[in-house]
Amino acid sequence: MLLPALPDRSGRASLTKSGSLYQHFAVEGSSLSQFDLEFNPRFKDLPEIAFFRESGLSAYAPILMDQTLIGVLACGAKLSDAPFTVHDFQLLTTMASQTGTVLRNARLVADLRKLNQGMQALNINLEEAKEQMEKLDEVKTDFVTIASHELRTPLAQIRGYTDIMDALNEGGALDQDKMSGLVGNLRKATERMEELIAAMLDVSQLDVNAMNLHFTQTSLESVMRMAIEPLTDAIKQRKLTLAARGLRGLPIVQADLQRLVQAFRNIVVNAIKFTPDGGKIDISAMLEPAQAPGEQDYVLITIKDTGVGIEKENLELIFRKFYRAYDPGLHSTGTYKFMGAGPGLGLTIAQGVIEGHGGKIWAESPGHNMQTYPGTTFFIRLPVVPPEDARRVMPFQIPEAVSKDPTIVHTS
Question: Is the pTM of this model over 0.85?
Answer without folding.
Answer: no
